[in-house]
Amino acid sequence: MLIDYLIKFHWRALALIALTGILVAIFEGIGLSMFLPLFQEASINMSANMPGFIKAYLAFFAEFDMYAKIRIVAGLLFVVMLLKFLSTYANQLVTLRLKASVIRYYRIECLKVVINSDLWFFNRKKISDLNLMIDTFTESHIGAVVDLFGSATPSFFTLLVLLAALLFFSWKITIAAALIVAGGAWVLSFMAAVIRKKSVVLYETKTAFSRTLFDILNGFKVIRIFNREAAMLDGFENKVVSLNNIQTATTMWTVMVGPVFELIGVCIVVVILLVGAFLVSKGAVALGVVIAFLVVLVRMITPFKALNHARASFIARISVMEEVEAFLQAKHRDIVDGEALFKGLKSGIEVSGVDFGYKDSKELVLKNVSFTVKSGSHIGIVGASGAGKTTMFELLLRFYEPGRGKILVDGVDLRSFTRASWRSRIGVVSQDTYLFNDTVRANIALAKPEASQEEIEMAARRAYAHDFILNLPQGYDTKVGERGALLSGGQRQRIAIARAILLEPDILLFDEATSALDAESEAFVQRAIQDIARNRTMITIAHRLSTLIDSDSIIVLDQGAVVQQGRHQELMQCNGLYRRYVETQAI
Question: Which among 175, 217, 288, 342 could disulfide-bond with 44, CB atoms 3.0 to 4.6 Å apart, if both were Cys?
Answer without folding.
Answer: 288
